[in-house]
Specification:
This protein is about 80% helix and about 0% strand. With about 325 residues, the chain is mainly α. The protein has one domain: MetI-like (MetI-like fold, Orthogonal Bundle). Helix 7 packs antiparallel against helix 8.
């Protein structure tokens, strides 16, 4: 019964967001024609016949209800039409950019989770010590710095001032390496600063939650009992503290993965990194409706899948949830 309710909830949310995804881009001022012309005072002069031909080519002159039907069909067929900016099918444009975003978002997710959990556990274990106070002040300070500012500082310092890393792009143009590791090294150098930016921007919240939850668990009677039995500190932290503090962390981690994907817009814009975030920014500025529809669908499905994964992990991490669900079913 609980599973059926969750499935109905997810379906309702998906339908609502898909409906919103169609109308939201059209609520923005202007349109594709304004972008092509360069705005009200643009340098591109177009006749009314040319404007009508462009609108007809992209099927934007059709009634709204008919455009909506094409949009609904595109949700199932993944065919939202041609991108106004790139003159190619919208999903093909996204597929070309998606690996780059997955690279930096995936790397930043792994790093932020690992560093946040380790430092949070360390800070909780050393609670009230200098180590704890130092880590806490450092993380609070990092959390107060805007993501774009972190990226700008890294770009100015490591790319402009010292020239250690490239200024933009995901790979060096026209670079033909002799070995695969040279290609991998080139991609790593381009991705490192965006990864560090995303990691730093989302590290503080994971650390703080892990620290607070670990401190709470350390005060539980079963931890005191384990200490009295002579269980080693490492075993207490891993077997007792970590597992019992992970449940609220799962929610935060899933939210942060979605936040990293959204936050990649700023990071990719700062570093001119050709990923989904930069593509979304370009699509919004150009009022590229087909591309916006495809991007919003991708983000919506991605976030909903993260929530499904969280719901599946909860019972595995906490047997009490499994017991509660069985009781409800009975």
């Amino acid at each position: 019964m609980a599973v059926n309710k969750q499935a109905v909830t997810y379906i309702n949310v998906l339908l609502f967001v898909l409906l919103l995804n169609f109308f939201l881009p059209r609520l923005l001022p202007g349109g594709p024609i304004d972008y092509i012309q360069g705005g009200d005072n643009g340098a591109v002069l177009m006749s009314e016949a040319q404007k009508a031909a462009i609108l007809s080519y992209y099927r934007l002159d059709e009634p709204m209800w008919l455009q909506f039907l094409h949009y609904v069909k595109g949700v199932f067929t993944l065919d939202f039409g041609l991108s106004v900016t790139y003159k190619s099918p919208a999903f093909e444009v996204i597929i070309d950019r998606l690996p780059w975003t997955l690279l930096i978002v995936g790397s930043a997710t792994v790093l932020s989770i690992f560093i946040g959990l380790v430092l949070g556990l360390l800070s909780a274990w050393k609670h009230t010590s200098r180590t704890d106070r130092g880590l806490l002040l450092t993380m609070v300070g990092l959390g107060a710095v805007p993501e774009f500012l972190v990226g700008m500082l890294l770009l100015i310092g490591f790319s402009v001032q010292w020239s250690w890393f490239p200024l933009s792009g995901a790979a060096t143009p026209f670079f033909k390496p002799d070995a695969w590791w040279e290609r991998a090294l080139d991609i790593t150098k381009h991705a490192l600063l965006p990864v560090v930016t995303l990691t730093v921007a989302h590290l503080a919240s994971l650390y703080l939650l892990m620290r607070n939850e670990a401190i709470r668990v350390l005060r539980e009677p079963f931890v005191e009992f384990a200490r009295a039995k002579g269980v080693r500190s490492r075993a207490i932290v891993i077997r007792h503290v970590l597992r019992n503090a992970l449940l609220p962390m799962v929610t935060m981690i899933m939210l942060r993965i979605g936040g990293l994907l959204a936050g990649s817009v700023l990071a990719e814009t700062v570093f001119s990194y050709p990923g989904i975030g930069k593509l979304l920014q370009e699509a919004i500025l150009s009022r590229d409706y087909p591309l916006l529809h495809a991007l919003f669908l991708l983000l919506t499905v991605f976030v909903l899948l993260l929530n499904v994964v969280a719901d599946v992990l909860y019972p595995w991490l906490d047997p009490r949830i499994r017991t509660g669900r069985r009781s409800e079913q009975r």
